[in-house]
Design goal:
single chain, about 0% strand, mainly alpha, disordered N terminus
Length: about 1000
């Protein structure tokens, strides 16, 4: 383990000086002054010496040349020593003038002293190398070597400095040896050559001058030599000395690390703590070490705080820190945070063993609590791929299967099973159950072909009897939804002696399958059986279907009896009962029931139909006044164009029955102009026919028919074309039907069967995958009032929707949303509801959603879609309480997309209520149970980041945002939101 070394100031050099020599008295005056200059120089009285040398050089005319050269030399040397201006230039000029001067050797040493004093070590070293050691005295040579070593040391040449100083140490006197030994000890210490450092430090440790200076070295060197007990002992002794706070912190660090290396974490803790307390910018190693010690002492929160300070780095130490941080989070039950830490460690490649350990923990936690950053199954599969021969691989393979199963990612579960080299009873059992679950998921989404595929796969196994029965049951439901009623019946009947959760509904489903197949006897049998033990919510419907069967079989008394006893009488019950009474010619009772319907259900969708049927019933009683009165109400108030037209024609016929032929003909002519060239024109012609024939006015009848677009002279060939086309159409042989309809319409562009033929031609094109032609024909039908207008408009809207042209589809849906056909009206409501929701027009979408939900004939999937849209509308309009209630009801949905959105809403409102931890727990449920729903998973991660901000855990918040930005490019709006959240963190 590396430790920060104690840095000590380099030793100060002490340079000795030679003793001054005794002056001699010279009789000759100038010789005396020259010698005086020399003596003054030797005793370092430089100003006086320079004065005398300069005087000799400039004013002594008799000075011999050798002494003049000496005077000039020493004048310049003293100028350098005294750092006078331009002194270096003067000495350099001298060297050029006297290149072979014997005084050169004397020039370099003082010049080196000058550079050393200026701390210009480069020039000092350069100058010292010019000195001729052989011209130096022993004492001068020792001084020279000492200066050379010092210059090399300051220039970073430790080896050269050591060589020079060791040579100086051998020749130095005792007064100089201490300084040299101290410097050599420091140099060997810095090179971690502790044996040599101890040798030199031992020679001076007892000297007062060096005692305090060398003791810290001993503490560090004992630690470096792994003699931790001595390092601790020497360090504790040093702590009792009067030393600086920073110095003391370094000693605490060495003692703490010594205890750390001895695994004595209790003793290490206070010393490392004291060291860190005074560090403004602790190193990565210091923080990791302290975090590790705190974790060993089970001070996990403190350990987390130290490790968290390392997390912006990218290094082997950071990788280890992330791993230890994950372990510390686990120790305090913060599994979500541990997941992120292990993931960060695993994503680094510095230490393979740490990477593997982190990957293992990351994989296990992903399985345990879910993973909002990536699929747990992907994490586990990666571990198996990388460590396929590891002892942990078997355990991980088991987790992989379970994680696929419990995450709800059923398709990946089957993919994983398909890739296994060999199946086992355990994997076969998972295959059976997962295939069933995936089948139900696709069924609830309305993907019946996919559902069929998975149910058939599940039925390949019979390891779990209940799942086998349920797969068979839901396969029957698939065939029912696809209109393949015989196949549905075959599956249902295989289950009559089995026991499974849906068994109670089996007779109900068989009843409907036979009912749709128009096998009313069998349908009656099963509905009767079901009603012996019905579910309350289906009892009323089963009774009504039983009544409808009797109605269809013309067993009107039994139908009426069932309608009468139906506990939940509705407008539909009243209406059906009234029609049955009418077929029994009990028109009085029919009228009474229809008037009761109008009274009790003034907002019923059957009001207009009831008024029309009352008009018909009064006409049957020859009460034409009341009959016309009710037909008038229909004409005045109904939005159903078909009813209005039929009521108008019926009222005209009443005038005929009252022998008011002129009034009737006038009415019919007016209607003829109104409905000219429409399907109603034929009805008008037929209604008028008795008047014209009664008067013998055949030509008038022909003119009348022709004037309003009715051709009464259809040829036989045309009738054959039409009837043949209808036959093929009925048999669903659309390809042959097309050719006959095309022939018929070529000869009869305005014929009797025009709109039926056009509609069925358009439908035949559609069924043979020719939507372009289908659209052209069906638009003609949909844009004109006729009996097939609503059906045509419905198909046109479906084609436009399939083509992605929602704008055009919407026009036709708006036209049929008030259709008298309940199914057509409901279809329009469902599709318009989805459109308005897509357009964010939640108020309109919610109105339609309420209508869809109220219609219990809608499939569970459609009603659930309406409930989701209503919940979104409530959330959008700020009705939080109602929205939460709506979303809570959707949490148990078997449709993973719906359930994921519901749990997202739960997390959203928890965040809004500042219940951040609860919100995160909900988000992990989404990650764990609905991993396949990427969109809601990504939106939930944005919420998680906001939760972490609320919990003041900016690391986790930032980390979560980074994962969204990196991994969810398919959802740019969510990435943009994550970037905005991250900006808030930086603030």
């Amino acid at each position: 383990m590396k430790s920060k070394k104690i840095l000590l100031a380099a030793a100060v050099f002490y340079f000795g000086v030679s003793e001054a020599q005794q002056s001699q008295y010279f009789t000759q005056k100038e010789n005396y002054r020259f010698n005086l200059a020399q003596n003054l120089y030797q005793t370092k009285i430089y100003n006086a010496s320079q004065y005398e040398y300069a005087r000799q050089y400039f004013y002594n005319q008799n000075l011999e040349q050798s002494k003049k050269e000496a005077a000039q030399f020493f004048d310049n040397v003293i100028g350098v020593i005294l750092q006078k201006n331009h002194a270096e230039d003067g000495l350099t000029a001298f060297m050029k003038e006297y290149p072979n001067s014997a005084y050169f050797a004397q020039a370099n040493l003082p010049l080196a002293d000058y550079y050393l004093a200026k701390k210009d070590f480069k020039e000092a070293l350069k100058t010292l190398k010019k000195v001729n050691q052989y011209q130096l005295t022993k004492e001068e040579n020792t001084q020279y070597i000492l200066k050379l070593g010092y210059a090399k040391f300051m220039m970073g040449d430790s080896k050269g400095a050591i060589d020079a100083l060791e040579e100086a140490h051998k020749t130095a006197d005792e007064s100089q040896k201490g300084d040299i030994a101290y410097m050599l000890g420091h140099l060997y210490y810095s090179k971690r050559q502790n044996d040599q450092a101890f040798q030199y430090f031992d020679s001076v440790k007892d000297q007062p001058k060096y005692s305090k200076l060398v003791r810290p070295y001993y503490v560090q060197m004992y630690y470096n030599d792994k003699d931790y007990d001595k390092a601790i002992s020497e360090g504790n002794a040093l702590l009792n000395e009067d030393i600086s706070a920073s110095y003391k912190a370094e000693v605490h660090k060495i003692i703490g690390e010594s205890y750390f290396m001895k695994n004595d974490y209790n003793s290490a803790y206070p010393h490392l703590k004291d060291y860190l307390n005074v560090q403004q910018n602790p190193s990565e190693n210091d923080l990791y070490e302290m975090g590790f010690v705190a974790a060993q002492l089970k001070k996990y929160d403190e350990a987390v705080s130290y490790y968290n300070q390392l997390l912006n780095s990218n290094s082997a130490l950071a990788q280890n820190a992330y791993y230890q941080l994950g372990n510390s989070y686990l120790a305090v039950e913060k599994k979500q945070e541990a997941l992120s830490a292990f993931r960060s460690s695993y994503q680094m490649d510095y230490d393979a063993s740490v990477k593997k350990l982190a990957h293992e923990q990351y994989a296990k936690l992903s399985y345990d609590i879910g993973n909002p950053f990536e699929s747990p199954t992907t994490v586990i599969q990666n571990y198996i791929t990388i460590n396929n021969t590891d002892a942990k691989t078997a355990e991980m393979r088991s987790l992989l299967v379970k994680s696929y199963l419990y995450s709800g990612n059923f398709k990946e579960t089957l993919n994983a099973i398909d890739k296994l080299p060999n199946s086992t009873p355990e994997t076969d059992k998972v295959d059976q159950e997962v295939s069933y679950l995936l089948g139900t998921e696709e069924f609830n989404k309305g993907n019946f072909d996919e559902a069929e595929k998975y149910f058939l796969r599940s039925l390949e196994f019979d390891l779990n009897k209940e799942f086998h029965s349920r797969a068979l049951y839901w396969l029957g439901q698939v065939y029912y939804q696809k209109g393949n009623y015989p196949s549905a019946i075959v599956r249902y009947e295989k289950l009559t002696n089995e026991t499974f959760p849906e068994k109670q509904q089996l007779s109900y489903d068989l009843g409907y399958a036979y009912f749709k197949s128009k096998k009313f006897d069998q349908a009656e049998q099963y509905f009767t059986q079901y009603l012996k033990n019905p579910k309350p919510e289906f009892k009323n419907d089963a009774e009504l279907r039983l009544a409808d069967i009797n109605y269809a079989n013309n067993d009107l008394d039994r139908a009426i009896a069932i309608y009468d006893k139906n506990e939940d009488a509705t407008d539909y019950t009243f209406y059906q009962k009234a029609l049955a009474l009418g077929f029994k010619d009990d028109n009085v009772a029919k009228i009474t029931n229809l008037k009761s319907l109008i009274s009790k259900y003034p907002a019923s969708e059957y009001i207009d139909d009831a008024q029309y049927e009352i008009g018909v019933a009064y006409a049957a009683q020859n009460d034409f006044a009341n009959s016309n009165d009710f037909f008038g109400k229909v004409i005045k108030s109904s939005s159903d164009k078909d009813l209005i037209a039929n009521a108008s024609i019926y009222r005209a016929q009443n005038y005929i029955d009252q022998n008011q032929n002129d009034k009737a003909l006038s009415e019919l002519k007016s209607l003829g102009e109104q409905y000219k060239n429409t399907a109603y024109a034929q009805k008008i012609v037929q209604a008028a026919k008795p008047i014209f024939t009664k008067n013998g006015d055949v030509s008038g009848y022909a003119d009348f028919a022709r004037n309003i677009g009715v051709n009464i002279d259809a040829s036989e060939i045309d009738e054959i074309n039409l009837s043949t086309g209808k036959q093929y159409f009925t048999k669903k042989d659309y390809k042959n039907a097309i050719s006959y309809y095309e022939k018929y319409l070529t000869q009869n562009p305005t014929g009797e069967g025009l709109y039926q033929a056009k509609y069925e031609l358009g439908e035949s094109y559609y069924q043979t995958n020719n939507p372009t032609k289908s659209l052209l024909v069906l638009q003609e039908v949909a844009n004109v009032q006729n009996d097939y207008q609503d059906d045509a408009a419905t198909r046109v809207s479906q084609i436009y929707l399939a083509q992605g042209n929602s704008a055009e589809a919407k026009k036709y849906l708006e036209n049929i949303k008030n259709s008298s056909n309940v199914n057509v009206k409901n279809y329009a409501n469902v599709e318009l509801m989805k459109m308005y929701a897509e357009e964010k027009n939640f108020s309109e979408a919610e109105k339609l959603a309420n209508a869809v939900i109220a219609n219990n004939k809608n499939s569970a999937a459609v009603i659930e879609t309406a409930k989701v849209i209503k919940a979104r509308s409530l959330m959008n309009s700020g009705k939080d309480k109602d929205a939460q209630t709506a979303y809570t009801a959707l949490e148990k949905s078997s449709n993973t997309e719906v359930a994921a959105e519901a749990f997202y809403a739960k997390a959203f409102y928890q965040n809004k209520a500042k219940a951040y931890k609860s919100s995160n727990e909900t988000i992990f449920k989404i990650a764990n149970n609905y991993a396949s729903e990427d969109y809601w998973g990504a939106k939930a991660l944005v919420l998680m980041a906001k939760n972490y901000i609320g919990l003041k855990d900016n690391y986790q918040a930032s980390y979560t945002c980074d994962q969204i930005i990196s991994n969810y490019a398919d959802f740019p709006e969510i990435v943009a939101e994550a970037k905005e959240v991250k900006k808030q963190i930086k603030k």
